Amino acid sequence: MPSEKEIRARLKPGCICKGIKLHTILSAIENGADSYEEVARRTNIGGGSCNSRRCREKVNSLLLKKNQ
């Protein structure tokens, strides 16, 4: 059974412009993506109407948390 954190991640947006959920980004990071560019390549985030301003900040924050 998924945890509450996992359920929330499945519902939260990760890249609003492209409609990609947070759990997709978290999965890429858990599977070895270690930079925004690598996460973007694996998940197809970025390049939407905001030009990655929103998702880049979110991904960089998640990567910092992982590396602490």
Structure description:
It is built from 4 helices and 2 strands, in the order αββααα. The chain has one domain (4-66): Arc Repressor Mutant, subunit A (Orthogonal Bundle), CATH 1.10.10. The termini are far apart. By secondary structure, the protein is mainly alpha-helical. Strands 1-2 form a two-stranded antiparallel ribbon. α2 packs across α3. The mean pLDDT is 90.
The percent of residues in helical segments reads: 55-70%
Give the overall shape, derived from the CA principal axes: globular
CATH architectural name? Orthogonal Bundle
Which secondary-structure class do the elements indicate?
A: mainly alpha
The total domain count is: 1
**Termini, distance in Å?**
28 Å
Taken as a percent bin, the fraction of beta residues is: 5-15%
The topology string of helices and strands comes to HEEHHH
Strand order of the largest sheet: 1-2
| CATH overall fold name | Arc Repressor Mutant, subunit A
* Biggest beta sheet attributes: 2 strands, antiparallel
Task: State the CATH class.
Answer: Mainly Alpha
Number of helices: 4
Q: How many strand elements?
A: 2
Low-confidence stretches: none
